[in-house]
Design goal:
The protein is mainly alpha-helical and 84 residues long. The protein contains 3 helices and 2 strands.
Length: 84
């Protein structure tokens, strides 16, 4: 068992405060790739396009690395608003 304590950014619904669980959004990797064509992900060494594509199928609450840029944080929020 690995137990750690880390700083992370939580992706959550702002009215209810409930964390977003990517596997339950219904967004497929194909939909996300199509969205990325017209809405490119800002370049960020902490959290990349590939990371987002991998995470969209993950279980549990969606966390971003603590040092993810504000541009990418905003991109993720906008993407979810657009696709949900």
């Amino acid at each position: 068992m690995g137990i750690r304590v880390e700083r992370k950014l939580v992706v959550f619904e702002s009215i209810t405060g409930v964390g977003i669980e990517p596997e339950y959004t219904g967004i497929t990797p194909g939909q996300l790739r199509a969205y990325m064509i017209g809405n490119p992900v800002p370049i960020d060494s902490e959290y990349s396009k590939e990371d987002i594509l991998a995470d969209i199928r993950s279980s549990g609450v969606w966390f971003l690395p603590d040092k993810t840029s504000e541009a990418v944080q905003d991109w993720v929020a906008q993407m979810l608003s657009d696709l949900l």
